[in-house]
Q: What sequence folds into this?
């Protein structure tokens, strides 16, 4: 009887290290691969959709005083509505965007350009940088920097001829700062350099400043 108990005790002591090693291996495998499902945990943020509503004003770097332009230094105020979709990522996000703008004031120097008679549709490529995450390693991107490059497509009332529709296009580069005082809601301010073509082979460079409200929505899986 004593021999049987001694044999069982020896077998138990011999198996204990092997069981412990197997448990350690199983725990390490689960932690690396995401548990029993075997899925790898991702550190990327999900798809992000942003929308904004604001207004601004432009300043002409080069005024054309010939008819039919007769431009003032200050361009008409405008309304901005747009959005962007950012692909999954973390420190650097990028994706497509679209902005629609129209003038909120008359263009006295443009021979009576009426309110909401000129529309600008701007498809763009956007880059988003969560500033505070890069600075101190936090996960809350309260302050963001957005860089935007777009092609403004301008459709509007013909200068000097309200029955005609003018179309032109150009290039735009913008830099914006976002501040979210709530999880998905905040304000923004943006400066843009815009160059568009015009009638009679003219070029019209402007610097524009605008600001407004933004919504930041993450599409959770």
A:
């Amino acid at each position: 009887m004593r021999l049987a108990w001694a044999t069982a005790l020896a077998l138990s002591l011999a198996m204990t290290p092997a069981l412990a090693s197997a448990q350690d291996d199983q725990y390490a495998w689960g932690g690396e691969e995401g548990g029993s499902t075997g899925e790898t945990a991702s550190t990327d943020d999900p798809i992000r959709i942003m929308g904004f509503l604001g207004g601004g004003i432009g300043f002409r770097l080069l005024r054309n005083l010939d008819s039919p332009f007769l431009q003032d230094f200050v361009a008409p105020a405008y309304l901005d509505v747009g959005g962007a979709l950012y692909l999954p990522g973390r420190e650097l996000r990028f994706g497509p965007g679209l902005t629609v703008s129209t003038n909120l004031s008359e263009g006295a120097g443009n021979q009576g350009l009426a309110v909401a008679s000129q529309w600008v549709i701007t498809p763009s490529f956007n880059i988003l940088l969560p500033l505070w995450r890069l600075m101190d390693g936090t996960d809350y991107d309260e302050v963001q920097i957005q860089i935007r490059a777009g092609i403004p497509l301008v459709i509007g009332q013909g200068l000097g001829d309200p029955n005609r529709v003018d179309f032109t296009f150009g290039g735009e580069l913008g830099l914006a700062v976002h501040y979210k005082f709530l999880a998905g809601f905040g304000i923004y301010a943006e400066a843009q350099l815009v160059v568009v073509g015009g009638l009679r082979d003219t070029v019209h460079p402007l610097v524009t400043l605008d600001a407004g409200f933004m919504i930041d929505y993450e599409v959770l899986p």
In short: The first strand starts at residue 48 and ends at 60. Residues 1-11, 18-41 have pLDDT under 50 and may be disordered. The longest helix spans residues 2-33. The chain has two domains: 2-37, 48-218.
